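ugh ok fine here u go
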Amino acid sequence: MSGPAKKAFPLRLDPALYAALERAAAADFRSVNAEVEVLLREALARRGIKVAPAEPPRRGRPPKERSNAE
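structure:
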C-alpha cells in the first residue's frame, strides 16, 4: 500500500539550516521532509498562494471487492 505519488527533486541546503530543520521536525514529531513541506505550505499561504490540501495517507485494509454473488 503506497501513498499518493510525490515529486522528488534534489535540494542542497546549508548544514546549519538542515540542522535547524532537524530540530524543528523532531519537536513536531515529523520527518525533515514533512517539516519542509509544512513550512513551504505555510510560507505560500502567507503570500496568498493557494495550494490544494494534501491528500491524507490511506490507512487500514482496502475495502473488500463485492462480487455479483452477494
